[in-house]
Amino acid sequence: MNTGVKITAFAAALAATFGTAYGVGKGVGPVEEPKKAGHGDHAAAPSKGADGHAGHEEGAATDASAAANLPGGLQVSQDGYTLAVETPKPAVGKSVLKFSIKDAAGRKVTAFTTEHGKELHFIVASRDLGTFRHLHPVKAADGTWTTPVDLPAAGGYKAFADFKPAAPGAKGITLGVDLAVPGAYAPKPLPAVNRTATVDGYQVRLGGTLNPGKAGELRLTVTKAGKPVTDLEPYLGAYGHLVALRDGDLAYLHVHPNEGGPGPDVSFTATAPSAGAYRLFLDFQHQGKVRTAAFTVTAGATGTPAEAPAPAAGEATHDAGGHEHG
Ligand SMILES: [Cu+2]
Q: What residue numbers bound the domain in which 81 lies?
């Protein structure tokens, strides 16, 4: 049953850069910083480098921006925080993952700022991007987190912890760590570029483009048996959650939706840190169950035909917020 809860509007032009770019419009905890470049990751400068490089100077400007703004999830330790995994070699099938976030002194962090309904978001993906799990571990009083997980096959995986320490001045951060599931490993190639994904009888269509160094709108449209789904349910305070992982190094981008209604469209604004292939994972909830639709997209190449070209300026304010469906 839909509670009819109104989702707090995210800023219409919310543009996620790699790194944790949210924390906008979510009245949780004492937010001291205004929603501008307070996070050090240039979240408020979606279409330009913060140092004034124009977004249309493709090559040099893009590289400079990316260098100044390392994508999230590539480091196991950053800003004095470390993702310490106690179960680096989980078994195939069901197991329990155990980890903590340690501070610069090696102590387990126990205080976090709630973001999107949780103190910490935990993603596990296989290196070949065929498996994706969005998990919500439980924290013990001493700062140890545990979560059950079901990993279907042996091979290399990467776990991401996406969180914001409660320490004054701490910014949102995504740490990444390798996991190895012992056994014979048969890596699969990255799935081909697709614009439509089917999951559990739902069809999800991907519109728009993912651009390197420049914000663009991604629009997901959910249908079931040919009919638009107009009663998506809030999941963690939003009608959809989108994680993008870069092929090659699994750089991480967690994108949250633009303002909009409960379907069938969910609109996001995202910026890729580079050209290349990405795997997109959309979590959406309908009739009490969360499902994940996955897409392979290519940023900055001819492989991304725009079904409807994104506005050149990138900040699709009115368009992004204006999806009303009757
Ligand atoms: Cu989460």
A: 25-35+70-185
Average pLDDT of the segment spanning 129-147: 97
Last residue of a domain, one of 185, 207, 228: 185
Ligand 1 centroid vs 198 CA: distance in angstroms?
Answer: 22
Give the tens place of pLDDT for each residue, 28-46. Answer: 333 333 333 333 333 333 3
For residue 72, which amino acid is it?
A: G
Residue 255's pLDDT band, with cuts at 50, 70 and 90, is confident
pLDDT of res. 32 = 36
Give me ligand 1 centre to Cα 235, in Å. 9
**Which among 140, 157, 185 is the end of a domain?**
185
Confidence at residue 121, expressed as pLDDT on a 0 to 100 scale: 95
Separation CA 254–CA 259 (nearest Å)? 16
Query: 180 and 200, same structural domain?
Result: no
The answer to whether residues 79 and 174 belong to one domain is yes
| Residue 308 in this model has a pLDDT that exceeds 60 | no
Measured in Å, residue 58 CA sits from the centre of ligand 1 at 33
Helix runs in the chain, H state only: 58-68, 317-321
pLDDT at 195 over 80: yes
pLDDT surpassing 90 at residue 152: yes
Same domain flag for 210 and 304: yes
Both 111 and 176 in a single domain? yes
Verify that 31 and 165 share a domain, yes or no.
Answer: yes
Ligand 1 centroid from CA 53, angstroms: 33
The distance of Cα 276 from the centroid of its chain, to the nearest Å, equals 17
Residues 149 and 276 in one domain: no
